[in-house]
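Re: export button greyed out
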Amino acid sequence: MKKQSIDNSFFHHTSVAIAGASTSYNIGHAFVSCMLDSGFKGKVYPLNPSGGEILGLKVYHSISDVPGTVDYVISCIPARFTPQLVSDSAAKGAKIVSFFTAGYSESGRRGGLDLEEELLRVARARGVRLLGPNCLGLYCPEIGLSFACDFPKEKGSVGFISQSGGNSIYLIRAAGQRGIRFSKAISYGNALDVDESDLFEYFATDGETRIVAAYVEGVRDGRRFLEALRNLSAVKPVIILKGGCTGAGAVAASSHTGSLAGSDEAWESLLSQNGAIRVYSLDELVDMLVTFSYMPPPQGRSMTVCGSNGGFTVLTADEYIDAGFSLPSLPPKDQHEINDVVARFSNTDAGMILSNPFDITNIGSGEGQYSIMRLLADNSMFDLVVAQVSISNSGWPHERSPFRFWPDMFLDALLKVHCEVSKPMAVIIHSSITDIDCQRALELQQKCSSAGLPVYISIPSAAKAMDRFLRYHEKR
Amino acid sequence: MKKQSIDNSFFHHTSVAIAGASTSYNIGHAFVSCMLDSGFKGKVYPLNPSGGEILGLKVYHSISDVPGTVDYVISCIPARFTPQLVSDSAAKGAKIVSFFTAGYSESGRRGGLDLEEELLRVARARGVRLLGPNCLGLYCPEIGLSFACDFPKEKGSVGFISQSGGNSIYLIRAAGQRGIRFSKAISYGNALDVDESDLFEYFATDGETRIVAAYVEGVRDGRRFLEALRNLSAVKPVIILKGGCTGAGAVAASSHTGSLAGSDEAWESLLSQNGAIRVYSLDELVDMLVTFSYMPPPQGRSMTVCGSNGGFTVLTADEYIDAGFSLPSLPPKDQHEINDVVARFSNTDAGMILSNPFDITNIGSGEGQYSIMRLLADNSMFDLVVAQVSISNSGWPHERSPFRFWPDMFLDALLKVHCEVSKPMAVIIHSSITDIDCQRALELQQKCSSAGLPVYISIPSAAKAMDRFLRYHEKR
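Workaround output, generated via the alternate export path:
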């Protein structure tokens, strides 16, 4: 029987029941508190045979006791009780049961496989969709549905699926910190019923989703996945991190989500031939989301680099050249304009690099920095302007250094140029070491993200992400 | 005339004069405060024609007014006055003049080149060595000589040279945070007189230096450098980051330190044929210093991974396999031992990966974690144990999560095993997002470094560093 395809009703629920929530802290309790903290707009029903109250909510003995219907059920009870829960949920009109519960096929035991089969049989018979098992379920910020209390509350345009719950937590938090917002995210674990292909098919048609990201360990039906991926990547960028692409990784993937991981070579050609952008770590995935979300496609690969510190300036040029960009020198007339600005704002050009790439550390005025970057951004020979600033070094020789606000001044100047000139720009706020550095870097990141600038946290990762972004657009 | 070779007297000074230090904040003032903050054991003489007092120290009008001799002079005065300063310094018995002052050959102007020639002429005639120009000079923690107030005060066994002052600040701070200590570090800028070859020759014989790191943009004398590198790498590991290895990077390097950067191909073969370990970023350089400083060479590439979160566990296995390691499965007897321990500490094995690589997130007791890692470390089939822990995810579903101390518990268990079993081990403390994460990660890093464990901050970078380390030892 062909599975019913997923539509918006899969994500929009007016009531959630959490089976296995206890009055003292446990995972079910945590899910309840997430719903409340995330401002879930519907009813929340904790379920536990012991009854009681959780965070002011009545705990029902079983789902059958809940008044009215329940749309979405989260199972945190032992695996052996779950077939009954699916059946009872169906009776309550549930559309989906999601299983934090683990101990199924990924256990490698016959009993686990049998249980999965039974779940599927009950679900199909009763018209309920299953998410997982061994997953965290749905994140749909529009209705306040979440599986972590601190996920962004605003919705955005990234759709994300992950077989790993832990990886989905990290990805959503890390990308959230960099200004990324999600339409929907789905932690789908063992993919017993709802799988990557179902979700890719949905995202291809979802008007709220502009970019799709995935952490996949294995696929159930290769042919169907290939088609779903091809259709999706024809209309939206699809960025994929494949876990378990090595021998030991595949063993781990099997034990993690019961996945048959497949050979890396097969995946490499499958992904590249079907339009996916492949990345190799969660941080690379975040970088791609930042790039696709915040950077308009540059017209070409001619660029300029401007920032602080000579050594970092040299290394930034090296990274971008290695990544396939060019940093042409300015023609004499344009170079003279730059030199004139420098002469207005500094009594020496010592200790700076005043050809492409530019090191303007010793321009100590925001107006001077603005004037130089404005000239660079206005110059039609550059398709792209990349600014880079080291956080740690701005506190030299000590934390009270008068240069410690250099990054703030420089980024204000950059943001002003970004407002005024419509040219692709990016900023790398890098080299944080101490906790004070870290706090400053996060504040500056946020300021730039809020202004619509793509922000990166290391020079090599920025160059790599932009290269992948350009390759994507060059192929189209 | 062959240059006089560098010996310990180059680093050990009893008096320092800083030319161009002003009573209000400027660079010279900053150097003075660095000497005081770093506990320099000798005399500090600020120099300025305006006189006055800086941080309780009398400011002398010129170096000639200083009573007695001066060993080490730091120039922060305009370039045109520096030949006279070298001459006056020689008259005071100075061994070295170091130039923060820039505006020489790197300016690309005839006048800058002429000034360099004049400096060199005066220095050679008067028997003074020059450091830079366009540099930060010497860091020698043993005598409290430093060019940043917060560099580690304890000495160590890493010798470091850098053409870039900014890169030397970042490297020393970042490595310092990861538990690395230095014998001597030299920011040597344009390398007019003292150059990379002089310093490599010195480090080859320096009994206090066990590992050498370098950020180099270009070399003055290729043949001599090759010989110095070959001799040094024959006795100590030498890790090199080459800046300006691309066209635009080379243009920047020329404008940064007046360097002729050379082609990347030439450098690649020069470095690999002469025993250097090449890295491509400052963070990779830090990783190599951590590895060489803290990890005993493993006997082979058979390893086990143990840590938190299934998704990260899969990705860690992938990274290490890709880097050329193997993660063999346990034989049945050893696997049963692990399973028995798990059964003692958890009523289910759901949600864990209990084959190599291991995910023991759901073992909620330090004793259980210790028992598993002890079994793994004791197992002679593994040459290496790598532990990995995600900081962000331990605060799931919210910051008050009772699992938030999982990393602390896990690392305590690991440190206990590390104390008891003499097997190469490493720990990756990764995936920090917020400032709170960052603070926690730094504390845990420090705890592990203090206990002698090599600590890494990302999964891919850890695998890459260990692969380079193994390659180094496999070649010998």
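Chain B has three domains: 8-131, 152-294, 303-475. The button fix ships in the next patch.
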